[in-house]
Amino acid sequence: MWHVVIGTFCARSHVVDSAVGALVVRGLSFTVDAKLFHLFQSTSLINQMAPKVPTVRLNNGVEMPVLGLGTYMATEEEGIAAVKMAIDEGYRHIDTAYFYQNENQVGQAVRAKIAEGVIKREDVFIVTKVWNTFHAPEHVEQAFQKSLDNLGLDYIDLYLVHWPTGWKFSGWSESDFLPMDTEGKTINSDVDYLDTWKAMEKLMKTGKVRSIGVSNFNSEQLTRLLANCNIKPVTNQVECNPGINQRKLIDFCRKHDIVITAYSPLGRPNLTDPVVGTADIPKHALDDPRVLAIGKKYGKSPGQVVLRYLIELGTIPIPKSSRLERIRQNIDIFDFKLTADEIKVMDEFNTGGRTVPFNFSSEHKYFPFHLEY
Q: What is the pTM of this model?
């Protein structure tokens, strides 16, 4: 069930009731003089307001915006600028990770917008993740605190286990993130992700994190986790786009009240990734004439059609962009819906091909992609 967040005063959207002369700003109601009210209606500020993003209620009662900004590979000034632009355009969900090495930039941008009065801390939903080399229980709390310090915030809204695969711990620097042997395979640890999860559950007692979840877990791993946990994961963040629409995993997670967050929702059309490379990447849907035709019907770009499709599937897409035009387009998807026939067209792109195959860790006993879902 979707719950629309109303009364968020930010770029291009507002909530007004002209009959009673009421204005809702950031969830607060104000009654104003009729002349002042109509003057406010006519100002250019109203025209600069941003689309409202609905939220979904997670299994712990927390509300999570159904669209966010992905930040992988958005570093340094690019990362700061992208997050600032996104917040100005109405984004209230920002996804990062310790591995991305941009938590500092994300935090700096968020704190700047809080200082400007554009948002309050409680208005924005911040997600980060514990990396594979930090799976040992004694490292989980340290990794979390490092992320919290990087962000410079009082708490994190959602903390995820980035992958079920634990790797050898060598240290906290970037050079230690990808322990590889001479054959280019990861040097694995024998840490069970159940032990990692128990350490995640302990973090909830600190009050510094509001929700915990997982990423890149398959259905068998989730089943095992659900049978052994005290706190159920609220989300499973996985690659999800027309090329791998994850319908079976979505259905599985829905039955267990777990939301799917969709990374690489556009199929990484401009991928230049030093980690996963560019080989064997499936053709995305963005240039297909059928998608172009659907977009033309609604006055939307192919990317907006794809993101709307993922919303219709019940996922939470987190598209990454550093361009203002794309950031604006990606959030402007809540004023139209695809028909059943159009969803069938989008379903036809599904091949199961991944843009993030993670093959260099395929020999790990917890490698998640040996199963279909």
A: 0.85
